[in-house]
């Protein structure tokens, strides 16, 4: 029995050949359907999926070539091998030009035919794999439009237009959820690499030991679990753009390797001595102050100067005048509205989680609201408490560092002297209506807010690993309960 069972369709008007070939292939472990004409073959193709089809070229009625044409027109996803008698080689060449993958001249041994059918199946498999990879690389999703009418966003759009065509590395700075990935895609879309791969990696979301293999690839056997050669994302992005999110989290040991690839485009897969060359435009993003990281010895200065040739600064949402209302209406489904109090509250809220949090709040409210109108009752506690506790519209005007002024500090456990004043009252411990999940979520988000969206500091303060914090934030975003314990 051959290694891989193939589902094949054999189309030949010669009864004896068809039958003996069918029997042989079945003995070899394949599944075979036999068709005596093009019409019969098409009816099989309509009903079933095949890996490979073998067409005789000379058939009465519909020839093999006409059948190939129909396969094309009807978009049947099958690899075609042609069988031809003498004198029809030209027709075969034509068939190959139409996308057939191989041809054999009769008489041929059945073993030879089986071998060619196997090759055709492998080719089909590779084609599919390639399509899937392309779909992953291009992510097959539309690039979100960068919404914003504020002066800062207009200036940012102007900068993107200037920076995009240069192919130079770009560094995007901004708090979490401000839209750094949207900006990265905008840069790529406005560059001449728009139709080339756009590949992303988030250094903070991967265990450090995986980042190297993801970025640079590995050779089979180079570590436990490396069961096959694998290209890294630099190779996948070759000719296109690589977006490295949270570049400040790049393990120090990998920083020289990134510097090298940025300097001369050369890299080595883990466990491989062969040097490879790639041409990739790098866009990096960070919500940390990389200069501070350099001073603290966590980030190489030479790497910083390589990646920040052009820097785009993304302001927090609370500093984009007019954009909150614009975004609220943009993400509100058609036919829905906000009542005035809810809209005013949201416009004045300081959105520590930025646009991501805003989208979340709108999505949640549309699930809870009646009659397609969003009211205060549909807003999460951190917003609805603002008015109910102050008795007036909240003052959430923001300092330049993003912290809030105008409310008394009510937090019993201020984080440090620099932490901004609380903008939302603490939950009352012992309140029997509270769930543990609510407490965890509120506490985590509050600490994150107080630390200006800095996830590293937040994780440290909460005494959990940064990756755990990421998982928690993801769960909150998806409306899932926090994990059992912190
Ligand atoms: N200006 C904007 N217009 C439209 N959508 C936006 C805008 N900014 C952000 N978004 C949306 O907000 C969400 C978060 O954006 P994005 O992932 O780009 O943020 P980020 O700054 O990269 O966050 P993180 O630092 O956590 O990775 C996404 O759904 C994105 O499409």
TrEMBL record:
GO biological process: phosphorelay signal transduction system; regulation of DNA-templated transcription
Entry annotated with the keyword Nucleus: no
Listed PROSITE patterns: RESPONSE_REGULATORY, SIGMA54_INTERACT_1, SIGMA54_INTERACT_2, SIGMA54_INTERACT_3, SIGMA54_INTERACT_4
4-aspartylphosphate, modified sites: 56
Signal peptide bounds: none
DNA-binding as UniProt keyword: yes
InterPro entries to which the protein is assigned, alphabetical: AAA+_ATPase, AAA_lid_NorR, CheY-like_superfamily, Homeodomain-like_sf, HTH_Fis, P-loop_NTPase, Sig_transdc_resp-reg_receiver, Sigma_54_int
Record domain Sigma-54 factor interaction: where: 146-367
Region (Disordered): 384-430
Keyword annotations: ATP-binding, DNA-binding, Nucleotide-binding, Phosphoprotein, Transcription, Transcription regulation
Domain of life: Bacteria
Biased composition (Polar residues): 384-402
Example of a GO MF term: ATP binding
Limits of the Response regulatory domain: 7-121
Pfam families: AAA_lid_14, HTH_8, Response_reg, Sigma54_activat
Protein name: Two component, sigma54 specific, transcriptional regulator, Fis family
Organism: Rhodopirellula europaea 6C
Source organism phylogeny: Bacteria, Pseudomonadati, Planctomycetota, Planctomycetia, Pirellulales
